[in-house]
Amino acid sequence: MTNENWAMIFSILGMLVNIVSFQVKNKKPLLVFQTIGNVLFLISFVFNASGIAVTLNVIYVIRNFIYMKLDGKRGKPMYITCAILCATFIVSYTIFTLVAGLEPKENLWNLAPVAASIFGTIASACVDVNKYRLWKYGDSICWLCFNARFGLGAIGGVLGEVLNQISLTVGLIRYRKKPEASLEHE
Description:
With 186 residues, this protein is mainly α. It has eight helices and no strands.
C-alpha cells in the first residue's frame, strides 16, 4: 500500500471519530473523542507529509489533555491557557515557515490550519459545549480548505469536515437549551 492509501485510511478513521465526538453531550468525553480523532489525523498527515498539519496536530493532542484537566474551570486559567496555546500555534507556524523553505503560496496555505487551530483552541476554552460547537465551525471550514488541496490522501479530511459541520449542527440542535415551559394559569 502507498503512503497515500494509508493516509486515506487514517483520515477516514479520524473522520468517523470526529463526527461521533460532536454528538457527545459533555465536554470532557467530547475532548476524549476529539483527541483520538486528532491522533488519527496526525498519522494521516504524517503519511501525506503534510508539514505544518503534523506539528499542529501534536499540539492539539496536548491541548485537549490540558483542557480535559481544566474541565469546569472558568476565567483566568482558561483565558491564559487559550492565549498561550494560540501563541504556540503562531510560533510553530513562524518556525516552520522559516525552516521548511516552501514557496510563498505554500506558506499562505499553511495559514489555514493555523487559523483552524485558533478557532479550535477558543472552542476548547469554552465551558458551554454548544459554544464549543459554534467555534468549531470556523475550525472545520479552515481545515476543509486546507485538506481539499491534497486530493485522495485527504479524502477523509475533506468528507470529514463536511460531515463534521452536519454533526455540529445536529449536536447544536440536540443539546440546545430549551426554553422553560410557561406556567399555565389554573
